[in-house]
Amino acid sequence: QVRLVESGGGLVQAGGSLRLSCVASGSFFRVNAMGWYRQAPGKQRELVATSGSDDTIQYTESVKGRFTISRDKAKNTVYLQMNSLKPEDTAVYYCNSLIRLTGGTIYNYWGQGTQVTVSS
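Above: the chain sequence. Below: its structure as tokens.
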């Protein structure tokens, strides 16, 4: 069974920093893309940052210059360094990954989510 487990959320004051981590575990052939999404109360889930299998990186406009996504492919881990946090960054952050199983099928997996709260 494949699992994505996030860590690193919490409460921080505006202007502060947090680092999220997500590790993929279980039985699979290869992790392709990994990324982060977030969902604020009353809003739809939105893409924050992704790192593709070809190392292509994408950010949503509102976090450019403040957030940095990185991966340790050997550890099947993705990180999200969040600096200069703003109250509007408050949300549940979800790890997402496209993973190729040993049979060749690619599945889309989600983590359980980690709360990030930024106080003003």
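The mean pLDDT is 96.
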